[in-house]
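Inverse folding, one chain.
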């Protein structure tokens, strides 16, 4: 079954300091639904391919799980999380708000080797904001005219970035970060029951140009996921390779509509052991109890109705 409408990402709180290629802001309403519909509250969410970590941050900020554990292999991306979570978040926020973005200052900053972790974190945030598509992989170029002809500054919002970083600092007792291998981390935690894994690996096709580490053994990842004691939710590009693995490992799968950074409509796959939470009306009502919406879905087709409500931007 496929959603007909796309999630309105403008209604999802942006909490990450990154504009992350392949970021999962559009998935936030689904992730809330998934975590809230567990029979028992989930103690810990593990995000083994963290990137901009929007799902992990949402879980920590909204108390969807007690703890969040982020893992990322790319040392530049890791430098940002380590800086924010290990006591230098205020420094990073201050550095961002006092930096004057010009072609010359950006070139100078990005060409000199960082002297320490926090300088590396600053250079990474800067690169993420001034390079085309936010791509951090080696070889990505600077934006030329940028949005609205504002050039390099078109994605540089110092006050917003400062606020997001300080908000994460304020929540850091719930978030743990490790620079390392996501697959190893999943394996190390495979026997723990009361946790959940949000697994968003580099995609089979686009990953190659977006990330420093684009290569994953997808079959091995599916095999590990099959043996997990805890629950998991995976997202993937809708490719024949992944559909074949879904069938081979007898996982449950749904296609969902989303818009990419060029505003084109695409479908992606949600994969889990069971996605019944996406189809049943009761968990959804419970999941949205309270502030998220007032009226329960009325359509007979609960799944479509649920997805329509999700797509309206909860
Ligand atoms: C699709 S992105 C994750 C995006 C993230 N969910 C978000 O919303 O921003 C995949 C990430 O996995 C990272 N990665 C690739 N191989 C990895 C590995 N073996 N262990 C941990 N992270 C890895 C990449 O650097 C990239 O940041």
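Residues assigned per position:
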């Amino acid at each position: 079954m496929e959603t007909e409408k796309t999630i309105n990402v403008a209604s999802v709180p942006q909490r990450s300091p990154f504009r992350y290629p392949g970021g999962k802001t559009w998935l936030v309403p689904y992730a809330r639904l998934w975590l809230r519909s567990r029979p028992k509250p989930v103690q810990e969410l593990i995000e083994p391919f963290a990137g901009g970590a929007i799902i992990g941050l949402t879980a920590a900020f909204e108390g969807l799980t007690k703890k969040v554990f982020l893992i990322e292999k790319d040392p530049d991306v890791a430098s940002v999380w380590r800086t924010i979570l290990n006591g230098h978040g205020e420094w990073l926020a201050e550095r961002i708000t006092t930096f004057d973005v010009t072609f010359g200052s950006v070139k100078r900053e990005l060409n000199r080797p960082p002297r320490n972790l926090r300088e590396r974190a600053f250079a990474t945030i800067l690169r993420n904001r001034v390079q085309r598509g936010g791509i951090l992989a080696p070889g990505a170029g600077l934006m030329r005219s940028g949005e609205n002809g504002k050039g390099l500054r078109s994605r540089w919002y110092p006050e917003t970035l400062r606020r997001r970083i300080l908000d994460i600092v304020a929540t850091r007792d719930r978030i743990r970060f490790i620079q390392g291998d996501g697959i190893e981390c999943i394996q190390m935690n495979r026997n723990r029951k009361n946790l959940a894994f949000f697994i968003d690996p580099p995609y089979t096709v686009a990953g190659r140009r977006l990330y420093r580490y684009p290569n994953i053994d997808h079959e091995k990842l599916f095999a590990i996921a099959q043996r997990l004691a805890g629950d998991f939710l995976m997202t993937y590009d809708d490719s024949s390779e992944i559909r074949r693995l879904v069938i081979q490992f007898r996982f449950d799968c749904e296609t969902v509509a989303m818009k990419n950074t060029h505003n084109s409509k695409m479908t992606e796959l949600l994969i889990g052991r069971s996605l019944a939470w996406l189809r049943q009306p009761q968990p959804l009502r419970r999941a949205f109890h309270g502030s998220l919406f007032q009226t329960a879905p009325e359509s007979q087709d609960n799944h479509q109705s649920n997805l329509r409500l999700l797509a309206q931007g909860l």
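Confidence is low (pLDDT under 50) at residues 282-302. Strands lie at 44-47, 67-72, 175-179, 195-199, 231-237, 252-259, 265-272.
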